[in-house]
Predict the 3D structure of the following.
Amino acid sequence: MSLDAGALDALFREARTHNGWTDKPVTDEDLHAIFDLLKFGPTSANCSPARFVFVRSAEAKEKLKPALSGGNLEKTMTAPVTAIIAYDPKFYDQLPKLFPHADARAWFVSSEALAQETAFRNSSLQGAYFIIAARALGIDTGPMSGFDKAAVDAAFFAESGFKSNFLCNLGHGDPSKLFPRSPRFEFAEACQIL
Amino acid sequence: MSLDAGALDALFREARTHNGWTDKPVTDEDLHAIFDLLKFGPTSANCSPARFVFVRSAEAKEKLKPALSGGNLEKTMTAPVTAIIAYDPKFYDQLPKLFPHADARAWFVSSEALAQETAFRNSSLQGAYFIIAARALGIDTGPMSGFDKAAVDAAFFAESGFKSNFLCNLGHGDPSKLFPRSPRFEFAEACQIL
């Protein structure tokens, strides 16, 4: 059964990438609620490689600031929360817990290339679930990949060895700061039925 | 405003990766409806690199068959539709149309590594939007990355040069074929608030 039109609008058709924010905060409860949805999104062998750092305090925002590109600076520094969507390159060490029915860890320890591809693909999937989960809870998003990854990794992941994938602002969007929506492909430009 | 509990269940909390299918078909209209939602999901500079091939006919399924891993064979051959989620490595040639306000094409033609990373990250995001859009329309999914990518690319993308990212079965799931759900992380195992 399909969700109703209002829900499809909120998730996709009317949802926008926001550049300005109201002063309504994003609470700990909001962040837990987002995670408690996105964690159910499917990943390969349930590998769940994404790790999330929610940058909210002034101190943490200052730590992030030097890594931001000029065009992303103001909207990110003023966003109630900026999430760093990262991944654990050693995600496979969690597989005995996350995928107990097989020795899935062995599939990845034997191939660094497969592990890296799997971590990047699946943390990207989880980043998309994150965006949709936030929208499903009435929280607006602003994802960005224009930033200095090495600087973020040095500032936030020197100990853990995690790697940043992309950033995503969270808040309640100010519609007056939206850009006009860019065009999308028609079905036949991107799809084929065989 | 949050979606209602039934919608959150349908998208995330109760949605499952399916392994068996009823004989209810997936129609052209269903495939168009899925695309007409997922196309609105955000991508970097609206680059929209994902390309979708919907493998539905017996002939197309036979073409896909040799690329499937043993564990994915039966569920894929019996699925009403198997989507190949691919990407166009030369996605940047569409940017004058998709992102008309800047010369975004130039950002990517000058760096093969950036183009490749952008195509893979953003086609993965779009693959996740695809999964969620199908669920939002009451269609069940079964994503898989266990297949022979080179064989799929040779069979389906020899002319276009597209690259396969992952596969996703579509249909109406048979709940009797579900595996028990695997465990998920607690918030504190994957998240940090700074």
